[in-house]
Amino acid sequence: MKSTACEMFGIEFPLFAFTHCRDVVVEVSKAGGLGVLGAVAISSPEQLEIELKWIDEHIDGMPYGVDLIVPAKFETQRGQETGKKTFDRVPQTHKDFVRELLTRYDIDPEVASEDRLSRGTVIGDNMVDSGARAMLDVAFAHPIRTIVNALGPPPSFMLERAKSEGVPVGALVGTRDHAVRQAEAGVDILIASGGEAGGHCGEISTLVLVPEVVEAMRAYDDLPVLAAGGIATGGQMAACMAMGAAGAWTGSVWLTTTEAETSPVVKEKILAAGARDTIRSRSRTGKHSRQLRSDWTDAWEAEDAPTPLPMPLQSIVSEPILRRLEKLAEGGHGGARELVSYFVGQGVGLMNKSVGARWVVQDFMEEFADAHDRLHHLMSD
Questions:
Q1: Are the C-beta atoms of residues 206 and 228 closer than 8 Å to each other?
Q2: Three-state DSSP class for 241?
């Protein structure tokens, strides 16, 4: 395709797949798109090395990328706080709240004991500057074609290192102003992520955000923009490119693929969900993120609930518990099933089957071609 994104990354079709699953990365890149490994759950440089080495051995030289979260501002950023020390900063009110919630659903409150939460807490190395540098060292030791910062402006050391390595830097934005700041900081490609997106997202609709950001980037040599947020079909991708996007950045649509890391219970809930079954909430990470609505998210939205903590402290009272709830739900625990949630966008209503990642890419290509033909027919004599 004649797309800036295809030229920049050496791909056939400008479909970008953000995923935590290395198998999906490989399958999407082999199918002509660009797989991007989300490394937020990868807690150390050693683990990242294992994942990227596996990708290198299976991807047959096709291009791929890495997405890190190096937030511009969050609690504990400049220090070396991890593990038990960080856990001690969580107020007792929040610890008590989750224990009481578990009890209401016939779940042993010891799931949220201080010992278990402390041991289950993973504050990734990328959450402190020194750790982020180490993660970058690993990433750039592999033939990655892009590196993306998923939350806020990439720190200067990330931009400088990427430019010295000749690797384009991407960044997610949720407003026109964010886009301008990123362009002035020196990023190479923007991901305009609308409020429909799963995970961390803003409030502005993709349909409004994409053309607004594309227009703003005309003053920056038409810096390429990828559209994100609720995109689950090739027709949607074509619509966004008709508005000026250079391609589509997708995440949720890969959660129901046969290769995905998603638990069977979560996959089942996602396949049964509609667009109205998601919520934008701070209850999981401390920053607004879109996820499946469940009794867990409803509890945190209640008037008597404590205010979610700043990132990454809120994750300490959510992630270890939610991981345990998935296990309990898989074992048939009804209360755990009601509480289970997962990051997913409003495009979930269009995700109604589980197929391989390569088939998803093929579907996007065919739907894109169909949309192109419809537009061509409208303009023909």
A1: yes
A2: helix
Instruction: List Cβ<8 Å contacts ≥24 apart for 156-163.
Output: 157/129, 157/132, 157/133, 158/68, 158/70, 158/132, 159/185, 159/186, 159/187, 161/136
Average pLDDT, the chain: 91
**SS3 of 221, please?**
coil
* Nearest partner of 225 among 238, 234, 212, 239, judged by Cα: 212
- Give yes or no for a contact between 80 and 128, defined as CB atoms under 8 angstroms apart: yes
CA distance 54 to 196: 32
- Domains (range + CATH), the chain: 4-75+125-259 (3.20.20.70), 83-122+261-339 (no CATH)
For the segment 112-141, what is each residue's pLDDT rounded down to a tens digit?
887 777 765 554 555 556 678 889 999 999
On whether the CB atoms of residues 310 and 86 are closer than 8 A, the answer is no
CB atoms within 10 A of CB 147: 27
Task: State the DSSP string of 305-362.
Answer: SPPPPSTTHHHHTTHHHHHHHHHHHHTT-HHHHHH---B--GGGGG------HHHHHH
CA proximity to 65, closest of 28, 92, 108, 103: 28
Q: What would the pLDDT profile of 232-288 be if each residue is shown by its tens digit? A: 999 999 999 999 999 999 999 999 999 998 999 999 999 999 999 999 999 998 999
CB atoms within 10 A of CB 97: 18
pLDDT at 293 over 60: yes
Round to whole Å and give the CA distance between 347 and 124. 29
Sign of torsion over alpha carbons 303, 309, 312, 318? negative
Q: Give me the residue label for tokens 């579907």.
A: 363
Report the candidate in 79, 100, 85, 83 with the shortest Cα–Cα distance to residue 44. 83
CB 29 within 8 A of CB 59: yes
Residue with tokens 């706080």: 81
